[in-house]
UniProtKB/TrEMBL annotation:
Protein name: NAD(P)H-hydrate epimerase
HAMAP family documented for this protein: NADHX_epimerase
Cofactor(s) required for function per UniProt: K(+)
Enzyme class: isomerase
Species: Pseudothioclava arenosa
Amino acid sequence: MTEILTSAQMRAIEAAAIDSGRVSGLELMERAGRGVADATFATWPELICAPGRAVVLCGPGNNGGDGYVIARLLFERGWDLRLYTLGDPARLPPDAAANAARWQACDIGSTPLDPQTPTALPEADLSIDALFGIGLTRPLPPGVAGLRLPGHRIAVDVPSGRDADAAQDLGPALPADLCVTFHREKPVHEMLKREGVKIVVADIGL
Ligand SMILES: NC(=O)C1=CN([C@@H]2O[C@H](COP(=O)(O)OP(=O)(O)OC[C@H]3O[C@@H](n4cnc5c(N)ncnc54)[C@H](O)[C@@H]3O)[C@@H](O)[C@H]2O)[C@@H](O)CC1
Ligand SMILES: [K+]
């Protein structure tokens, strides 16, 4: 039977691993981003040798940090990247800020999303939803809830707008074809499977 962890249990496991000195938060984020890229190419192998365009949406927390890692990894593989940010990048938590700085070194730039009005996103082969993960605390702002995601839609950890613990209905959420979570499934992933979303659990070495 699949072992399922709540978001609080997941945070405790991550914190214990980091506190033990066995692994840094930054390294966990790198493994998380790599896990999403690997699952994406395992799901759509035709994309491995045919880099196209990817839209990456990065939120204000560590889910956004995963997004910056994924953008960098796709850029290194020759993809045309369009990165969008929500919130003030100057207020990102430390590991996400470090990956935003690495992204800036790629010299591609980014576009802020308007939280009130949905931004028109370009056509793309992949869209990566790294806006909110297990840290979502309230309904999505209207400018996010109304986004139309192009191409194959990949949710990082949790589709933005969904409560990872499936305990409360937080309102509209972004759609996903593939959702890549880390270490163990969370309660929402059982619901997502029933909705036809492919779930991949990436091993991040915890
Ligand atoms: N070291 C770590 O902690 C790791 C974290 N990971 C990623 O980090 C995620 C959790 O990161 P966080 O705890 O930073 O949480 P999130 O990145 O999910 O979101 C937290 C941020 O969103 C804001 N927020 C919440 N709901 C909002 C709403 N409706 N509108 C606007 N702002 C809202 C909060 O104020 C906070 O700034 C996981 O889902 C996973 O993707 C992975 O990188 C693995 C390692
Ligand atoms: K997400």
